[in-house]
Amino acid sequence: MTKWGLEIDETHFLGGLDKTPFLQSINPAIFFDDSKENIDRAKIYVPSAQVIYGINNLDPNILIKSPSIESRNIQNEHST
């Protein structure tokens, strides 16, 4: 994350468990996960962002469906 000028304070990996009770107790600044279900539960309590490139999102068409700038850049790299 130094490329973005960010410093990671802590990371936690819970192996697919429901993270909501844990997030409520630690009250993170932001929560990232590749599971839409985890994001939907967590966003009620903490700022949350889905990582669309995670293991739960192996569908190769996800890049085409995503309106993000990053996905358009990736599509452009593959078309050259």
UniProtKB/TrEMBL annotation:
GO biological process: one example: nucleotide metabolic process
Concerning InterPro entries, the annotation shows: 5-nucleotidase
Taken from the UniProt entry, a GO cellular component term is: cytoplasm
Tell me, what is one Gene Ontology molecular-function annotation carried by this entry? nucleotide binding
**Under what name is this protein listed?**
Uncharacterized protein
Q: Please name the source species.
A: Rotaria sordida
What is the phylogenetic placement of the source species in the record?
Eukaryota, Metazoa, Spiralia, Gnathifera, Rotifera
